[in-house]
Amino acid sequence: MIVGDLQHTPVREPNEGAPSSVEPDAWWRDAVIYQIYPRSFADGNGDGTGDLAGVRDRLGYLRDLGVDAIWFTPWYSSPLADGGYDVADYRSIDPAFGTLADAEALIAEARESGIRTIIDVVPNHVSDRHAWFQEALAAGPGSPERDRFWFRPGRGPHGDQRPTDWVSSFGGGTWTRTVDPDGTPGEWYLHLFSPEQPDLNWDNPDVRREHEDVLRFWFDRGVAGIRIDSAAFLVKDAALPELPAARAAPGTHPHMDRDELHEIYRAWRRIAGSYEEPRVLVGEVWLDDPKRFAAYLRPDEMHSAFNFEFMTRPWDARAMRDSIVQTLREHAPVDAPATWVLSNHDITRPVTRYGRVDSGFAFDRKRFGTPTDVTVGTRRARAAALLTAALPGALYIYQGDELGLPEVELPVEVLQDPMHYRSGGVDPGRDGCRVPLPWCESEPPYGFSAVRRDTWLPQPKGWAALTVAAQAEDHGSMLSLYRRLLDLRRRTADFHTGRLQWLDFGDDVIAFQRGARIVSITNFGAPLALPSHREVLLSSTPLHDGVLPTDSSVWLAL
User: Fold this and answer.
1) Which of 2, 95, 315, 347 has its CA 20 to 30 A from that of 258?
2) Catalytic: 23?
3) Residue 263 is among the residues annotated as catalytic for this protein
4) Strand bridging mode 225-228 / 280-283
5) Given 102, 145, 187, 229, the catalytic residue
6) How far apart are CA 222 and CA 108, in angstroms?
7) Among 43, 68, 82, 284, which one carries the catalytic annotation?
8) Structure pTM?
């Protein structure tokens, strides 16, 4: 245990977490961004599915929580084969959520409340119901309509073998065979995800023009930025070679992180920068190579990218500290802000994940019936909330994490996620973190819908204590903790401009100083005596006799 004067214990790493001297009014560099999964946030029309009317009704909640922006997962017209990531029409809102007029009103009303709006764009693929794909099916082989996608004849004497043996991100193959008008088997089409999501051909100028027009369509309506789904997947090697046996040379993988991608994002950045208030590009970029990752964040490309690496780390001091160090170092050469997030609409919720023996996350390890200690997980999730909020950069919060909601293990018969079905039923999928939010009352639907009791995914019994109404009255609740930490973060200059200096309190502690007067300590080990300080600003668990318990965080003022 190390106790003493903090000024004698810093471990300095030059410029780590240093604030940028560029773009002083760049709100996105340290914003709090709240992710909304529209189907599950709030139901305004009583049909059991969340919608834009429900979000508009709850803007006051988001304002009081203290968020700077809301990020919507896809709200466009879609058959919802993959939760809206199968877009049928980018210029219309899915009827389940409302209308284009509803979206325009929401964007304006949110901005009046001091909240910007970010929306998802899914450029790798569209829905198989999209007009372009329907036209391609009707037009036949060799047509300009099919050139917008990846149609190819099959291998073998009868064309009945897939063009490649690539594996889908959802499991299984990446090719589906079409049927010609006369009923005979036709060409195959590529889909890196589900068959309902045919991949676009980004070598085709129509595809590039269309997406640039889509950006302008939404930027003109006041959207402050876009989040780019599967941002490293768009460009393919036109020869469609098999995956190499060994690791591909950087930039040469047949369908991921190809060098040609950067030209696309530079064009998008020019569009984003053409507005009086420049719009923001946020990438979903899963890459192991730090230099390749940083290339997407150069000053003329994306503004920021999701930090998946930190989100998937186990509850372990060394693992999480290493991830923080790596993240800050990756971003420093291009002067891009880091992003910090504990979960999203694809990831097991922290309260459940951190209570497991294996508290990290990987899609291929998800299984039904994995035990968890929710009490332990909740304590750790509270500590993680303070840790991430104290780090330099932007903070993302997935809806419901501020309520401490656990992952719900749903009955198989109600699951809708294609990851479950394409895994052969082994993977429970992602529906467990997408269950509708509880707002009030003691029984389902907990105020999510004022009319119906049946929600699109069933809510569990026993959530009465987790509702917004119940937690708002409980000073010790997860919601109260989030409201206090976001308020402190907003009002404290050192969280925005202070450099990060690491402090050494042993291997089981993550501790650092922000600026001249703020210290954050997260204790993973035995109870820790706090160092000298002027004031305890906030702690994730009660403190007794100046001791920080295990699995706890504290913010101190010097």
Assistant:
1) 347
2) no
3) no
4) parallel
5) 229
6) 7
7) 284
8) 0.93
